[in-house]
């Protein structure tokens, strides 16, 4: 859990206390603000600062994201400063999912409570590693395919990966994809970011196609054109009428973290901010 501080540090104390499961469960009753679950860019939080009365933010950090932020340039906040950013109520890591006390039957589960709390999940940047964990598919497999149907075709179709070995991927794996659990349509927005060679790899193309087309949120009934820096909404043959649950904001061309100039850079903060505002109806 986040480091405990004394009551004298009022704002910091309140925010760190809000990382508890009890507070998270209670926070679901807050219907006056929209709930954004964000992994992991602090610059997006800053861009949404003007919505102080409309938006509550909780941040999920993977171990890789934590290491990346700690070594970032001045354009990104440090991990220790995330709780001081506007609208941020709590920051979670894998340690919060697995401890500090052993889970007992009947107790709340963090990744489930985060899904229930969130109106939207935004993963920006989405790394090649997390993308690979979320999905991999050499042959078409439509959403909402039943387990028996999958097992019947296991010799011809590799089952889509749904690896959930950290807090973030557990939330994604537990997402209510057809609104039958939470009774509410909720979207996962992802903004891939990686080296140009990784972005151009055929495996990446297949994985992105799963998110943008097979599992993409329903638009006007036609597959969307995937363009750099654009937010795609695509459907696939056989997709349920309720539509998918992923929206992909495609990368752009710029100088990458490795020093190369090419495609694979995360879309601009303004593009991601505008997508969040549109999805949540923020004015």
TrEMBL record:
Residues 43-134, 158-219 form the Flavoprotein domain. One of its GO terms (cellular component) is phosphopantothenoylcysteine decarboxylase complex. InterPro entries: Flavin_trans-like (IPR036551), Flavoprotein (IPR003382). GO terms for molecular function: FMN binding; phosphopantothenoylcysteine decarboxylase activity. It comes from the Eukaryota. Pfam families: Flavoprotein. GO terms for biological process: coenzyme A biosynthetic process. SUPFAM superfamilies: Homo-oligomeric flavin-containing Cys decarboxylases, HFCD (SSF52507). Keywords: Coenzyme A biosynthesis. Belongs to the HFCD (homooligomeric flavin containing Cys decarboxylase) superfamily. PANTHER family: HOMO-OLIGOMERIC FLAVIN CONTAINING CYS DECARBOXYLASE FAMILY, PHOSPHOPANTOTHENOYLCYSTEINE DECARBOXYLASE. This is Flavoprotein. It comes from Lasiosphaeria ovina.
């Amino acid at each position: 859990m986040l480091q405990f501080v004394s009551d004298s540090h009022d704002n910091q104390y309140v925010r760190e206390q809000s990382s508890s499961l009890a507070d998270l469960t209670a926070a679901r009753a807050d219907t006056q603000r929209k709930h954004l679950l964000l992994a992991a860019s602090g610059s997006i939080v800053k861009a949404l600062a003007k919505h102080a009365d409309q938006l509550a933010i909780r941040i999920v950090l993977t171990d890789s994201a934590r290491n990346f932020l700690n070594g970032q340039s001045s354009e990104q906040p440090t991990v220790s400063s995330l709780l001081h950013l506007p609208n941020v109520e709590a920051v979670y890591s894998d340690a919060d999912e697995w401890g500090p006390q052993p889970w007992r039957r009947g107790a709340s589960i963090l990744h489930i409570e985060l899904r229930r709390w969130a109106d939207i999940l935004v993963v920006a940047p989405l790394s090649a590693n997390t993308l690979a964990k979320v999905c991999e598919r050499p042959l078409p497999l439509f959403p909402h395919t039943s387990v028996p149907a999958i097992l019947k075709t296991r010799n011809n179709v590799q089952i889509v990966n749904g690896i959930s070995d950290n807090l973030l991927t557990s939330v994604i794996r537990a997402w209510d994809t057809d609104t039958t659990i939470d009774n509410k349509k909720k979207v996962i927005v992802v903004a891939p970011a990686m080296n140009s060679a990784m972005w151009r790899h055929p495996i990446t193309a297949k994985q992105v196609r799963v998110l943008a087309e097979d599992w993409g949120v329903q638009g006007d009934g036609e597959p969307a054109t995937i363009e750099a820096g654009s937010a795609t909404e695509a459907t696939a043959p056989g997709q349920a009428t309720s539509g998918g649950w992923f929206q992909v904001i495609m990368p752009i061309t710029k100088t990458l973290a490795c020093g190369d100039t090419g495609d694979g850079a995360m879309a601009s903060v303004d593009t991601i901010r505008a997508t969040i505002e549109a999805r949540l109806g923020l004015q």
